Amino acid sequence: MAQLVVKTYSRALFQLAQEENIKEKLEEESIVILDVLKNNEDFLTLLNHPKISKDEKISIFEESFVNLSNELLGLMSVIIKKDRYMYIIDILKDFLEIIKEDKGIVTASVFSAKELDEKQKAKIEQRLENLTNKKVETVYTVDQSLVGGLKIRIGDRIVDNSIKGRIDLMAKELLKIQLA
């Protein structure tokens, strides 16, 4: 249910941005709102407070983001009126992902057992761009539980070429043999 709500609002925002030719503006504004919400838990607590009326929450939002476009303010008002404020961060994140996708950019999460040097990162990024035929933004994370190798996630696809992944796969295969 939550994912459906997030997708519905983020796609509606993207469609509006496309129709009004304001994708870049709404992208920038969304980044600002996300930054404020992520770095200010009190603001989210305020939006979630049951004793503050919806109209007051909308006023607080409007006063906090004075230079926000009418389109984004309107969406935030609808989200607050429909008691969906707990999804604001996810809606804006999903909207930004749709914008990236529209620009031909994908985000890849690369997990490795140890820190990769710049040469290794450049090689991985080049390979991913060749495979996807898109510009790739990479986020690198060190996960020592992988033991060695890499695990890469792009969207809902995962390529696990880590030692841990191989051991897990072998364990599953052995269980199948024992159960047969």
UniProtKB/TrEMBL annotation:
Keywords: ATP synthesis, Cell membrane, CF(1), Hydrogen ion transport, Ion transport, Membrane, Transport
Pfam families reported in the protein's UniProt record: OSCP
Keyword Cell membrane assigned: yes
Keyword Transferase attributed: no
Membrane topology qualifier: Peripheral membrane protein
GO MF annotation list: proton-transporting ATP synthase activity, rotational mechanism
PROSITE patterns: ATPASE_DELTA (PS00389)
Any one Gene Ontology cellular component term annotated for this protein: proton-transporting ATP synthase complex
Compartments where found: Cell membrane; Membrane
Cited InterPro entries: ATP_synth_OSCP/delta_N_sf, ATPase_OSCP/d_CS, ATPase_OSCP/dsu
Function: F(1)F(0) ATP synthase produces ATP from ADP in the presence of a proton or sodium gradient. F-type ATPases consist of two structural domains, F(1) containing the extramembraneous catalytic core and F(0) containing the membrane proton channel, linked together by a central stalk and a peripheral stalk. During catalysis, ATP synthesis in the catalytic domain of F(1) is coupled via a rotary mechanism of the central stalk subunits to proton translocation. This protein is part of the stalk that links CF(0) to CF(1). It either transmits conformational changes from CF(0) to CF(1) or is implicated in proton conduction.
Protein name: ATP synthase subunit delta
Source organism: Natranaerovirga pectinivora
Gene name as annotated: atpH
